[in-house]
Amino acid sequence: MVTFVEPPAEPPVHLTDTRALLNGYLDYYRDALLRKLDGLADEQLRTSLLPSGWTPLELLKHLTYVEIRWLQRGFLGDDVPEPFGDRGPGGRPEGAWRVLPDETLDDLRTAFLSTAETSRGIIAAAALDDLQRAHFDHFSDEPPSLAWILFHLLQEYARHVGQLDVVRELADGVIGE
């Protein structure tokens, strides 16, 4: 049985301020991610329905660490313990996503929301043309601007939330933005 869930509101269509649009769409996708996880049983959250093997909980943890890596580690240059804590043994960048057996949806949601709040503070304190402070493996020559990083985060969210759309429909038939 297919059930439709009403999507959250996007930022207003008349909004032209780039910072407000970027923040608005990041929050829109953050909300969409959490909404798509709501209502799934623990077994559904920990079971993969895809050949690649990732689970909905792993995706939540991954997107938390994506924000940590790009904004705290990369943009600010902070020394972040375990910047690849969403990955397999040893936190290797190339490792598969992982969630430990004792990590719950509530734990991961709390970490995600805390990271989003930290990200909002970082974004508010910087200019969109400020450059990333730390060397990041993706770039060998020029560091990206905060605006570029935020657009990158948006595409990361859009792609992964779209993948979660399919997983959710396969898991229990719920569809919606």
TrEMBL record:
InterPro entries noted in UniProt: DinB/YfiT-like (IPR034660), MST-like (IPR007061)
Superkingdom of origin organism: Bacteria
Entry-linked Pfam families: MST
SUPFAM superfamilies the UniProt entry points to: DinB/YfiT-like putative metalloenzymes
Gene3D superfamilies found in the cross-reference section: dinb family like domain
Protein name, as recorded: DinB superfamily protein
Gene source species: Actinomadura rubteroloni
